[in-house]
Each structure stands twice: as C-alpha cells, then as structure tokens.
Specification:
The chain is an all-alpha fold. It contains twelve helices and no strands. Helix 1 packs parallel to helix 3.
C-alpha cells in the first residue's frame, strides 16, 4: 500500500509540475486536493509548497524580460490588502459559500471568454486600474485564507494582454513575491518540519521531469492552444473548488 501511495503521489507531483510549467499556474490547485485524498490537508499544503514556490521563481527569472511593472502595480496594491483580509478575516467566514462563489465566478468568466463580447468589455475595463485592485484583493484574500489565488490573477492579466509570455511572467513574478510572504507566515506558525521537507525532496526528480515536459510543450504551442489550455485549467480550478469546498 505504501508503494501504491508513493507512486500515486509521484504522479500527482508530475502532473502538477507539467501543468504549471505549461500554463504558468496550477501546482497547488491540482496537488493539494489530490494529495489530501492520501494525507492530512495541512501536510499536503506543506509538502507541495517548496515546489509550487520554486517553479514560480524559476519562471519569474526565465520570463523576466516580459514582466510589465505597469500591469502589476495596481494588482499588488490590492493583493497586499487581500493577504491581510485573508489572514485575519476570511478564515472566520463560511468557507464553503466563499469557495463555491469563486468557482461560479471563474466558470462564468471562462464561458464568457468564448463569446465575442468578452474582448470588447475586457478592453474597456482593462484601462482602469480598479480592475487590477479588485482582482488583487480577491486573489490575495483567497491565497492568504485558502491557498487559492490564481483564478482572479489570470482573469486580470488576460484582460490586459493575450501574449502567453507576458501572462506567464506576470503570474510567476507576482506569485513569487506573495509566496515569499507566505513562507514567513507558514514558518512562524510551524507548518514546516524537517521530516516534511525530507519527504517533499524525495519527489524532486518527478517534479523536474514534469516541469521540463511542460516547458518543452509550451515552446511549440500556439497562442490559441495556450488560451484553450488556460481556460481548461481555470475550469478545472472551478470544479475542484466546488467539489472540495
């Protein structure tokens, strides 16, 4: 049974790394719910955290030439407020309703992206810094409270740019900074342990292989394929949020 569990965990880590390297996000979103079927949720979060943060840092450095500070400035302002809200307020609100509300919003946005009107409306609201601030607050709140922050971030940056390189650079850089803050928070609360870090390190080969496969596929994917893949990952996020709420 232990070998089966270890093989299953290795497959989960490979899939999470592959999706993250290709789409630019999704490691915790995929790994935590699946690992939680085998492990306590708190241990699952700690087990995947180094890889989730590490992959974002690698991508942030790799795509650093495509990062736009002008795009990030309003989002960061909202995200800092959101992280505070998530840490001190959202944990006291009904988690099920909040997660399912986010799931519905994400699903509606993906469906709306398939219509011709989405680009016109996106162009209109993308000119306002308030879109970034609002998405930043929502993303930071859910990241701080429930470790789910990618969907609002992706919705925001996709309304501004359709370039996969800019999108991946934005997501990776913003998450690297936020995960740096969370590292301090998790460390202070005793979430990490030497035993957990040792267990996590044992899966590094499959994470590296999954990431390399995702980076390789991204090189050959067209913008349309990338957009469809991101929509698919967002829909997966909505389904996971709804089921695991």
């Amino acid at each position: 049974r232990d070998m089966v569990n270890e093989a299953t965990m290795a497959l989960i880590f490979f899939l999470s790394a592959f999706v993250t390297a290709f789409a630019g996000f999704g490691f915790a979103m995929i790994s935590v719910p699946l690992l939680a079927l085998l492990l306590p949720v708190k241990f699952a979060v700690a087990l995947q955290f180094p890889y989730s943060m590490g992959l974002f840092m690698v991508q942030a450095w790799h795509y650093r030439e495509h990062f736009k500070w002008d795009y990030a400035r309003p989002f960061f302002g909202g995200a800092l407020v959101g992280l505070t809200i998530g840490a001190f307020v959202l944990n006291y609100l009904p988690e099920v309703q909040l997660k399912r509300l986010l799931a519905v919003i994400v699903a509606l946005v993906v469906i709306f992206n398939l219509t011709g009107a989405s680009r016109r409306i996106g162009d209109r609201f993308s000119q306002s810094p308030w879109l970034g601030r609002v998405c930043g607050v929502v993303s930071g709140s859910f990241l701080g409270a429930y470790n789910v922050g990618a969907p609002p971030m992706v919705i925001y940056i996709r309304s501004i740019s359709s370039d996969p390189l800019i999108i991946k650079s934005f997501i990776a850089t913003v998450f690297s900074i936020q995960f740096g803050i969370l590292t301090c928070v998790y460390g202070a609360t005793g979430m990490f342990s030497w035993e957990g870090l040792g267990t996590s390190a044992a899966f590094s080969p499959v994470v590296v292989l999954g990431a390399l496969a995702g980076f390789w596929l991204f090189r050959y994917a067209s913008n349309n394929v990338y957009r469809m893949a991101v929509d698919a990952v967002l829909l997966l996020a909505a389904v996971i949020l709804w089921i695991r709420a």
